[in-house]
Amino acid sequence: MHRFDSDVEALSQAVLDYTLKRSRMHPVPLDGPRSAAELDEAAGRTITAGGLGGQTALELFTEVLAPACISTDHPRYLSFIPCAPTEASTLFDLVVGASSIYGGSWLEGAGAVHAENAALRWISDLVGLPEGAGGVFVPGGTIGNLSALVAARHAAKVSRAGDPPARWKVAGTTQAHSSIKSACDVMDVDFVGVPVDEHGRLTGENLRRTLETVGADGLFAVVATAGTTNFGIVDALDSVADVCAELGAWFHVDGAYGGAGLAAPSIRHRYAGIERCDSFIVDPHKWLFAPFDCCALIYRDPQQGRAAHTQKAGYLDVLTDAAEFNPSDYSVGLTRRARGLPFWFSLATHGTDAYTEAIERTLEVTRFAAAEIERRDYLELLREPDTSVVVFRRVGWTPQQYQLWSDRLLIANLAFVVPTSHEGETVTRFAIVNPNTTEGDISTILDTMA
Ligand SMILES: *Cc1c(COP(=O)(O)O)cnc(C)c1O
Fold this sequence. Notes:
Helix content is 44%, strand content 12%. By secondary structure, it is of the alpha/beta class.
């Protein structure tokens, strides 16, 4: 299994052929799920004592398993948050896989870590963070948010060592991503829900008012969202930063989806105040065109991340005693793939201007979608998009009608758009992060709702 022989040579060719074939397809097939029984039937027994052989296993993947996975990079995949990796980043994912790089320490992965840090620096500059800022690429926003909050609490624990509060608290809005509440559960801290203003945003004023009611004792962090998942709303970051400064609370900005908008001049003003954050996350696998799974976690003062996350053990002393930058010291987790490299390679290849252009292109299509929805009398826009999420209703439809419509689109291989809910009402939404999504794609989908 560990020798490169003529079978492996042939298998390499087959793997590269598949990769090339899929990369050349525009659009890729949308595909869709099948039941476990159907897959059992079609795939048969795949794990056997003797093995199937690489060619047979690959064929099983390309003919049976892959078509049962929706292509998240299809231009009419507009559900949840799609993934739209650049060709360069997808190709480089292969290279990273072929290179057996350990990305957790400088000692083992210096070259990879150096490159990842350059990509993190670009993001820090977009945010407006000082020279000393830094962090690590983690698997996703969920781990990024958790790691930032763990660092925030660690800092608070140190500063209140003699006088700990009865309960530690994190404040955010009900529109904050589910991973924030999940992080609070993991950490056993309380989540203080702050009502949003009439634009759906967290504001300093509402935050202050809520804390006056419930008390600010034990509050160690405030989470603002730069691009909520359901609506793409950017909170009033500057006024939230004011309250954090008054209270000495850590200011975390969750830009998992919307952080990419920092690179788009047409909406950059919405993020005013973001430069005051103590920590920030953005998922390049969402709107920054990297393959799964990739989240950039950045601290204003990386020492605070390090103080909270460095794992200590005799077998790690050679790493922890070194002055070098070890990515594993900055998040939950130890072993890590150099998952920032596909993103770095694409940035290095195309330059940052190409990213600005591609993000602006998705915003153009978003504005077109909003205007088209307003123009059609059977549709209603719920609010003007802040970023690239468009939420709308089909007048008169029941939840069942939305679901049926959504199922039909997928079965017809036309589009993947699922219902969502807002204040108890079933509606639907487009999340537009793929520069290959066109105005024509949007019109085609809207036509199916007439
Ligand atoms: C997607 C998302 C997350 C979670 O990120 P994962 O990469 O899915 O773990 C967190 N916050 C926001 C605002 C998101 O959109």
